[in-house]
Amino acid sequence: MYLITVSIQCPDKKGIISEVTSFIYKMKGNILYIDQYVDRENKAFFMRLEAEFDDKLHSYDSFIDAFSKGPCKKFKISWKHRLNSVKQKMAIFVSKHDHCLYDLLGRYKSGELDVEIPFIISNHIEAKKIADTFKVDFYHTTIDSHTKESSEKKQLELLIKHKIDFLVLARYMQIIPEKIIEKFKNKIINIHHSFLPAFPGAKPYHSAFERGVKIIGATSHYDTKELDAGPIIEQGVTQVTHSHSVDELVSKGKDLEKIVLSNAVKNHIQQKVMVYKNKTVIFN
Amino acid sequence: MYLITVSIQCPDKKGIISEVTSFIYKMKGNILYIDQYVDRENKAFFMRLEAEFDDKLHSYDSFIDAFSKGPCKKFKISWKHRLNSVKQKMAIFVSKHDHCLYDLLGRYKSGELDVEIPFIISNHIEAKKIADTFKVDFYHTTIDSHTKESSEKKQLELLIKHKIDFLVLARYMQIIPEKIIEKFKNKIINIHHSFLPAFPGAKPYHSAFERGVKIIGATSHYDTKELDAGPIIEQGVTQVTHSHSVDELVSKGKDLEKIVLSNAVKNHIQQKVMVYKNKTVIFN
Amino acid sequence: MYLITVSIQCPDKKGIISEVTSFIYKMKGNILYIDQYVDRENKAFFMRLEAEFDDKLHSYDSFIDAFSKGPCKKFKISWKHRLNSVKQKMAIFVSKHDHCLYDLLGRYKSGELDVEIPFIISNHIEAKKIADTFKVDFYHTTIDSHTKESSEKKQLELLIKHKIDFLVLARYMQIIPEKIIEKFKNKIINIHHSFLPAFPGAKPYHSAFERGVKIIGATSHYDTKELDAGPIIEQGVTQVTHSHSVDELVSKGKDLEKIVLSNAVKNHIQQKVMVYKNKTVIFN
Amino acid sequence: MYLITVSIQCPDKKGIISEVTSFIYKMKGNILYIDQYVDRENKAFFMRLEAEFDDKLHSYDSFIDAFSKGPCKKFKISWKHRLNSVKQKMAIFVSKHDHCLYDLLGRYKSGELDVEIPFIISNHIEAKKIADTFKVDFYHTTIDSHTKESSEKKQLELLIKHKIDFLVLARYMQIIPEKIIEKFKNKIINIHHSFLPAFPGAKPYHSAFERGVKIIGATSHYDTKELDAGPIIEQGVTQVTHSHSVDELVSKGKDLEKIVLSNAVKNHIQQKVMVYKNKTVIFN
Question: Could you report the predicted ipTM of this complex, rounded to two decimals?
């Protein structure tokens, strides 16, 4: 038996669900989960399903081939698919603030995140100790006027060499090079420490304090060329009062950031996130 | 064109989704919304869909007939269906506390609730003024040792005479007669002013105060013979502190009750609630 | 016996609490509630207290006089004070969307809001019916190029004639004239249908939909000359998903707006809101 | 200069605040934070303050002595006090589930928790690895019919020998011996994985699943002889749906438990929690 996850996007038309589910039925598959969404305004159809097949009847590759030639062709479907048994490779980028790094590695070690983490990259050597504690490889890439270019080259090489599937920016305060953004489109998960679109850019907790808001937030989104403007995956908020100092906002925000980022990462791993017109469809 | 909503429950089996969606496709229907859920432990399948048909091709009745003889028979489906254009009839029962009554009638008048409200029943004559303000019929049914039997008889007669589809207990502090509970199974929506199963029964805000909880809640559920133990439709909570008196808990709770009850009512109207083993599947 | 509420603002100095509480003790007062806050960065002190005095010993006026000459002078206190038994006069301005109006009037009639409402002003004549239902005076002030000036004059005259203490803009979509803003500084409570500073201006739910946020909000703030930039009193949020249309955001937002606005109004009535550097200190 | 925290409980009487603040003013102290609460029903007064004194004028001991003889005597105050510069000693008890342990140790190492952690006790040897990673001493105390008595004796000895100030039960699934509960009254912080009083006892997530609740919670409370019935310090909740399995409830609950427990621990450390009639007053 093998278990697969399929995510589908195509123009909305009568009969897609019927076609896809009948196709799987004919291939003797058992649908375990299925979700659809239709964006009526844009006439776009989205579907995610998990199905189980008997590998004595046909292989994963032959299913992929048949589905491509069948429903995909008929309905102009663009799709992603994966064999659930194969672990995805996730790289972590981090700067000075290490609470999200601790959180992700704790979840990784306890088996909560179903991935491999081949390495951590940081522009701060202090993160090496944490990588060592959790026995994950570490690369130090300094980002200054002299080293920027070589560091970025090294980063890209590492990502390619290790066949990284997606990146997590666990409070990485450097700009990601355009080459990496292009190569990993909708595969770079960032955590921004505000309730976007409020307070983009640097020092959002300071801005929130200055404005006197009564609720602060955190936003996980895919990184795009435009700063803090990519498709939002997950947001969380928590109440604050006039009595909270900036430091207390930072401290309260840390717990938010950890949870929002880890939820976004889990949804990405399970292929529950589909991107469309700089927005996300989340099946969960 | 006509628009219908269908809710399905049956034992889980391979091919149900394929069968149902293909059937609708063959009937030239257009599926607007579709949701499924499989309870793997109990091998139970649930589906809700909204679909549009051309009444020049076949009538609502002929679709119902064909679906009954086709998928329903094949998969032992128990189902509910309705023509979306037909408004359901909702009766409101209320006692002394009138905030939920005000809230429901406000939403009704503004068109937010897509129902007819043929009448309001109360054991408190004070509610008549509110019914008058909103121009809804009102019946006063006193519940004491002498009048109980005749009142309950009158209630049931009113429900039958007006072809009521479902009842809302908008803080009705009397026991609903068993005959009505039996006749309106999973069609009596109650609001209980606590986070069930904590604090069932009378005076839950007093109990919450006494226990010193830091969060209070409200629960909307279908009424069953066992008090406050029916299938939960919706719950809401809000934070409180040591400084809140019982009266302040009551006041904060009112806003919760209004929102939780009106959400439950909306989900019921749209046939988004399915009951199974004293629990609900909510498609929204 | 008489009950008063006092709100104090002054530069922070050692001994203020001691001075104020000892003063009240010497006047044979009983402090029922007391809250303080010190903004350390700006060295500003805030205090709110409710105290009970024996009117056989001295009058409200004589207390006010003594407190002015005593603690106020010594610590350069700027303060507000009120006799709790005197109801404040609140005017409501509303445009087309009437859910907040319904909500406020419902709370008013049930005794939840301890105010008088001398009148409602709207640029939409439709609101008259609601005012009539709840038996509140109504004035229709059209706002176009011909009537703007006379309408604004009339509004100011009404506010002065009825000795209005504060205004509530219950979704009033017109600009408040500068003269009124100046005269009612920190006394005009607005509800904005977004989580400010995100999505200021018109059509915030459309912008939220466009941006694909996963949480929407509402913000109550004091009106200032700069649009949607005044001191924030209260904010609330609720989760949304990709599947919510703009209309559904609007609908979910209505419940938020009602609760956020009514909480802000209650805090204002009880003099729990103090404004400082375009931010609020909220004692509750 | 030295900084102290004082928590006060006494029968409510006119003039307490005035007396205490004037006393501190006369001792040339500077009040940094002050909070009060009066339980009117029970006529009980609560106050917490942080104040700064000049150690050239008098020592901490002499202040304590003077305050005991002064305000404490006059108003029958029972109080707690501490020198903020002295770190409290916190012991952690844990069983099999290690997410709260990881979380607390991460916060400890990053400096977020201002305590010393002399040791961790577990009935599961697996926790030793985690203790080693974070370089904290570890004791293994097996709890079976043969070892129970000696283990409990050893636990008490360790607590006394290391002068432990308070205990955290970070998902410790064993009963705490009465002797320890008595000695550490209101000093044993437990995390229960449900929204108490709903689902006390074992397997609350299973019970929540069975009942079909739409919100799950976590509760941190002081341990008392009666199971899961001690004074509640903090509660948190999160939404769930019919589609969540028991395992998913457990997984969602872990994040709740971590945050609820760590907030309770922080409030305890800062002496912000006062216990009264099996309830807590929380000043924050």
Answer: 0.94
